[in-house]
Amino acid sequence: MARITAGTATTDSFGLRAWQAVRAINPVYFIALVLLVWVGFRNPAFYQPDNFLTFLQRAAPLMILTAGQVFVLVSGGFDLSVGSVVTSTVIIGAILANNDPGATWWVILALLAGGLLIGLINGAVTTYLKVPSLIATLGMLLMARGVGLYWSGGAPRGYLPDNFRMWGRGGIEGLFGLRDFPYAVIVLVVFGVGYWLLLHKLNYGRQLLALGDNPRAARLSGVNVNLMRISAFVLCSMTAVIGGILLGGRGGVSIETGTGLEMQTIAAAVLGGTMLLGGRGSIPAAMAGALALELLFTLLNLLGLPKPLRDAVQGLIIIAAVAYTAYSTRRNR
Amino acid sequence: MTAISPPAAQPSAVGRARQWLRDRNVPPVYGILVIIFIVAILLDAFFGIDDELFILNQTILTNILVRSVALGIVAVGQTFVMVGASIDLSVAYLISVTAVGASYLMAGDPNRVWWTVLVLFVVGIVVGLINGTLITRLRINSLIATLGVGLILRGLLNATFENFAGSVPASFQTFAYGTIGPLPISVLVLFLVVLAGWFVLRRMRYGSHLYAVGGSEEVARLSGLRTERVLTMAHVICSVTAVLTGLFVVSRLRAGAPWVGTDGLYDLESIAATVIGGTALSGGKGGVWGTLAGVLIFSILDTMFNQIGIDAYMKQILRGAIIILAVGFYTFRSKAEQG
Asked: Structural domains in chain B?
């Protein structure tokens, strides 16, 4: 996004330079800002810290999932299995834990191990069998959901214990003088900062972006292409498990928990300027894209639109935003 | 596919058979189809829940074909789009729109069939034009553009209808249940659609243009093709096949509900069947005969799973695994042939 304009800056007026500086900012931040102001305009109570944190708690799973998806997207792949992994995390978590608070920790570990395995399979199938990631993860979409539903017999069974659900709906009472500081927001900040460091500050991220930009050049310059690809899928699947833990905590056990999330994460990432087929993307911008989507849902709710029409508006906004991004990148060239 | 095998002095019978198939451009996926068919017969013989072999039962064999009709028609359209290096995720929603629209507009009255069908095909053409315009003029990635259009269709549909609406007249159900002699009309329609798809792709100038655009849009444009028009046309064709599938589905169910398209997973399964059939996601190669084999593989598996009594969720798991393995086998093999 941040394209450097060639050098006659000294003769430019202040206004022009300011305009160029604004132009260099990823448009997703403006979209999110406009939505934020609009929501506050419709519902001034939205800005009260407690209410805003509750909103962030609700937005956290999608933002974290989107950050995970970005790793696969910038490496040049897709992960369509995210939603199924989320659903199965919730279903299988409920069966394994079965309302026993003592089981929570090993259940979370087991679920993460499951995510690791799914990521490894996705990665291995794409790199070694050379199956396009769209198809490989589509197969995994069917398999992951199938395993969850087969295990539970098709209907949710068992309960998630309270200390499992606290991650999604609980908080620390009285922190910063607030009523309740949600754990989900803490998780969001930890993963947001961690993934930002990983993709933008560490060598790993540079190699991954190089790989997505030009696999051949990356391989010739010594990047372990297969390892990088597989690691991106593993990261994404394990993030999906984290997202599932948060969503299961908030909404309880349902076989619809993760439905549609794979496309929402991809749409949010693209809204944030992530390029499909790899090479470019930013964690903060993608997370802002996810935030913008959640703000949009809130706004449409406040405007009193029936739920189905929200889908339609979401579709329109995604098309418009991506068309604008495509247009502005073309113009900058 | 077109790799030249080294000239052997005395080619074996298998080698000659392979050469014969290659000379006639038989897609390699037919090998997988045959293998799966044989495996299905063996599994049915050893683990079948009844004593009867499905291979000897004409009803079941016909059923395999009928099962292929809904997915098969739309997969032909998806093949066009994917040959042009694009993709269409909106087909499932368009199928729902068609199914609900047909039963609502016809409202059981045989006199309203013709103009309803006409209206729905116009809707399909418009949706295809929108998809094509978003992708070629506004340069939106096809995955995102068609996903967005799909969401809009779903939203509008769900906001208007909540359940089964209206019904189609009995005469319209001939499409799904009628037969000409022993041959179901629907299977004939599928065959005609595949044949038309083959003719357009392989025998008409438009087909060559589409392969050129899918192979390299840049080169196609520089050699004077109006690439935007070619690709938009492919999207229109795809949407029209989705409408035809929707009409078949509603003619089978008698009434349409907003979830019939998405529950049938027609978007992802038509893509999977096309890729299994040998059309690359990157475009420029493949064809409708391969896609037909991909669709038949799905129907045979479904029938076999029913014959040996596999749980519905286990079916999903196996389906996912088989999609991956079939495409893996295919890509792995073509990599090996390239050397």
From this structure: 29-37+53-338 (1.10.3470)
Out of B159, B319, B324, closest to residue A125 by CB? B324
Amino acid at B304: M
Interface A–B counts its CB contacts (< 8 A) at 148
Predicted pLDDT of residue A1: 47
Interface test with B, best of A130, A133, A142 (most B CBs within 10 A): A142
Contact B300, A121 (CB under 8 A): no
The answer to whether A312 contacts B151, with C-beta atoms less than 8 Å apart, is yes
Cβ-based interface (< 8 Å): residues of B facing A: 134, 138-141, 143-145, 147-152, 154-159, 268, 271-272, 275, 281, 311-317, 319-321, 323-324, 327-328, 331-332, 335
User: Which tokens hold the place of B270?
Assistant: 């038509």
User: How far is it, in rounded angstroms, from Cα A61 to Cα B269?
Assistant: 28
Q: Looking up tokens 């694009």, which residue turns up?
A: B86
Domains identified in chain A and CATH numbers:
45-291 (1.10.3470)
pLDDT surpasses 80 at A9 = no
Q: What 3-state class would DSSP assign to A187?
A: helix
Cβ pair B144:A132 closer than 8 A: no
A12 against A258, higher pLDDT: A258
Q: How far apart are CA A205 and CA A210, in angstroms?
A: 8
Please state, as a whole number, how many other Cβ atoms lie within 10 Å of the Cβ of residue A99.
12
Q: Which residue in chain B is spatially nearest to A265 when comparing CA positions? A: B144
Contacts of residue A271, Cβ cutoff 8 Å, sequence gap at least 6 = A28, A31, A286, A289, A292, A293, A318, A321, A322, A325
Q: Assess contact for A270 and B144: CB atoms under 8 A.
A: yes
Judging contacts by C-beta atoms under 8 Å, the chain A residues touching residue B323 are 135, 138-139, 142
Give the end-to-end CA distance of chain A in Å, rounded to a whole number: 11
Residue in A306, A322, A327 closest to B141 by CB: A322
Backbone angles phi, psi at A140, to 5 degrees: -65, -35
Taken in order A210, A214, A217, A219, the sign of the CA dihedral is positive
Stated as kind and residue range, the H or E segment containing A222 is none
DSSP letter for A284, please. H
Cβ distance B159 to A266 less than 8 Å, yes or no, reads no
Task: Determine which of A122, A130, A263, A311 to mutate to test the interface with B (most B C-beta atoms within 10 Å).
Answer: A311
Q: What is the mean pLDDT of each run of 10 residues along chain B (339 residues)?
A: 53 77 76 86 80 74 86 96 94 95 91 93 97 93 90 90 86 88 91 96 94 93 93 97 96 89 86 89 89 93 85 87 83 58
**Is A324's Cβ below 8 Å from some Cβ in B?**
no
User: How high is the pLDDT of residue B3?
Assistant: 53
Q: Which of A138, A307, A316 sits opposite B152 (nearest CB)?
A: A316
- Helix (H) or strand (E) run with residue A182 in it: strand A180-182
Q: How far is CA B59 from the centre of its chain?
A: 23
Mean residue pLDDT across chain A: 88
- Chain B nearest-CA residue for A129: B328
Band of pLDDT at residue A130, cut at 50, 70 and 90: confident
Phi–psi pair at A172, nearest 5 degrees: -90, 120
A15 touches chain B (CB under 8 A): no
**CB atoms A315 and B147 under 8 Å:** yes
> Two tokens at B38?
């044989």
The predicted structure's pLDDT at residue A10: 55
Q: Rounded to an integer, what distance in angstroms lies between the CA atom of residue A280 and that of residue A257?
A: 30
Please check whether residue A184 is in contact with residue A60, taking contact to mean a CB–CB distance below 8 angstroms.
Answer: yes
